[in-house]
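Input record (one chain):
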Amino acid sequence: MDLQAGVQMLATTSFENENAAKLSYKRGQRFELVGYSVGANWCVCRRLDTREEGKVEVANLEPVLEPEELARQVRLMQARVPSLIAALQEKFDETTIGPLLAIGNSHGAAVTMLRKEPMLDSLLKDIVTADPPVSEALRQAMRLLGLLCNESDEHCRRLLEGDQTRMVALLTRHLSMHDSAPLYDKDTRSCATACMKIVNAIARSVHFSAVCTPQVIDTVLSVLGNKLNNIHKEAPNPRAYHLPSYAAFFAALVSHKQGLEALKGDSFQRVITTLHEVKADIDTPVAVDYATGALLMLEPRARDKSRAEAEDGHVMISYNWRHQQLALKVRDRLQEYGYTVWVDVDKMEGNCMMRMAEAVEGAAVVLMFYSAAYSKSRNCMLEAQYVSQLEVDYIPVFTEPECQSIKGILGLMRGTKMYVDLSDDSRFEDGMKALTFQLGSRGKGRTVIRKQLTRVDMGESREPTLLERLQESEKMCEELSKRISKHDEEIRQLRLLITRRRQRACCVVS
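The corresponding structure, as predicted from the sequence alone:
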């Protein structure tokens, strides 16, 4: 990206340093660019508040540009990319791979643009799996692959198609570079972490079995367990993103049954010991969360069912941040009815995984706010898995019309459970009636002043009578019957379509 003096730069991560020539900063802090050489790892910036000048790592900065200027810059880079790819096809060395990596490191919009290049990731994969000699060019190629990795199942499939064994072996070999590279060798360490990012993407995808092997697990354990290597020397520093990348591998594996079984194999005790060390000794909150999340699935804590099932157990709302307003609306209404509600409003501080675990363990029932974003969130899915593992009762709450089509663990957990539909404002009142009916007295704290659910046509607050509850049950049964009839009609139409296609196929054959 064409950067000129005077451009404002935004810190994308935090950094603390005692070197007088380098600035310390927090994520989101802004600087004014003073000087920058294309291809350099560092640039000179000036603080906007104190006007102090110093060196800042280019990889930790992103230019603050107006939308029009950003679009212009992206168009300029996009015009260069085809010729750079053609040069890379002709010759693979630092002069051809370096400019592409520089473009990818310049801005998030540049990465998005490179991901749309259909040939680039496949070309890089062919280059690195051709077993070239270890060189700076190879490390740059692996870093660029890490940038392009978007963690989708399709991208992981393309990475692994062909010689899958060679690709995984190459990634595994690079993971251990933190044990051998000097602390000042940032490029080599960045290459190792880029490979770890790719491995984590595969571990979270449907192709997870490719990296669920003793070789990969042992390599990651070796790096995490070596207290003398680079990631542990950096760990007290808030910018240390290397350690969380390695701890995230185990949090990804425990989300799959096969991954859990692999971790509980011969290396189980070593896995447990290493994760406990990361959780206890490393002052890196993100890494601690990953380690805690993995340990919750590997070493489930005993749940105090007598407390949770009693009236003083709370109602927990598990949701994605995109639906926070709905979660708060449901919380406020339930509190009016006398329920004790646990909901994370301000984002949990400290070890958020441990607080989440305590919330699940103390819940009488969990309201799981189904959505597409919920199904893709690592933390939300871990909550769902922990709920299932501890056999805590839960109620699916649909926040979007398409929630019926959600598959995976959420689809299995939904099963035949009766869900509550809050996907539209017009359904809120009826949905809350159905929700409170399913909750019953569960989650009503003894110390809370109780306000019972009132019917719309009643002007007083009182406990619904048995007849009213039966009428509510009849309405719910009628609604469920309608849903079943709708599904039966869909199945009938599908069978009819299959029959027609078979008839056409027979005509073509004859």
